[in-house]
Write a structure and sequence with these properties.
By secondary structure, the chain is of the alpha+beta class. The protein is 22% helix and 45% strand. The protein has helices at 2-22, 137-141, 151-158, 160-166, and strands spanning 23-33, 39-42, 48-54, 61-68, 74-81, 97-101, 104-113, 116-120, 127-130, 133-136, 168-182, 185-188. The strands form 2 sheets. A 7-stranded antiparallel beta sheet has the order 6-7-5-4-3-9-10. Strand 9 and strand 10 (133-136) form a beta hairpin.
């Protein structure tokens, strides 16, 4: 009986230590599909993330760099792209700095958003990069990923029903939550 009590007491003490050392308030990124309500949570180590896509006309990459501020505001710091085209800035704007580095156009700005709304699809390869890991957003919400060189991708482009199945109206926002964290294991409380 005494041995069981000691084991239970030590187990409870160990659990308390794990909870208090692994439980912390931290910033998380939430990506939510508006239609289904499905959510995915990402855990940035440095309060930064990137959104990327392939421009539909120019077929060149575009990357947008965000910082999450203390009040969970998403601050768009810069956009990096390789060529001018529809929807991309082509002249100096009054609220932004512009430069060309290694053949890439960099537009520096400080634009605040409560959330980012977008239509994510495998066609332009919408992605989010957190802690150096690039994640294709459509893959988060679809059971099967679509290889852009496959027959399935050709069907996706031609068929509206197929396109809707892999296209998601999403919202991205940040929040501060209590998170139990040990290594790569996270539980949001």
């Amino acid at each position: 009986m005494f041995r069981k009590s000691i084991i239970v007491l030590l187990s409870m003490l160990l659990l308390a230590i794990l909870i208090f050392t692994g439980l912390q308030e931290r910033t998380i990124i939430i990506i939510e599909d508006r239609k289904s309500g499905e959510k995915h949570t990402l855990f940035p180590n440095d309060n930064h993330f990137e959104l990327g896509y392939i421009h539909s006309v120019l077929l060149t990459p575009v990357d947008e760099y965000f910082e999450i501020e203390e009040n969970n505001i998403l601050l768009l710091q810069k956009t990096v792209y390789e060529s001018f085209g529809v929807g991309l800035p082509y002249e100096q704007m009054s609220d932004a700095e512009f430069e060309i580095v290694d053949g890439k156009f960099i537009l520096y700005m400080n634009r605040e958003f409560d959330q980012v709304n977008m239509i994510a699809s495998p066609i332009p390869k919408h992605s989010i990069t957190v802690n150096g890991e690039k994640i294709y957003i459509a893959d988060l919400f679809s059971e099967a990923s679509v290889d852009v060189t496959s027959e399935a991708f050709k069907m996706l482009i031609k068929d509206d029903d197929e396109r809707r199945k892999f296209t998601h109206d999403i919202v991205i926002h940040a929040s501060k939550k209590k998170v139990f964290e040990i290594g790569n294991f996270h539980v949001v409380l």
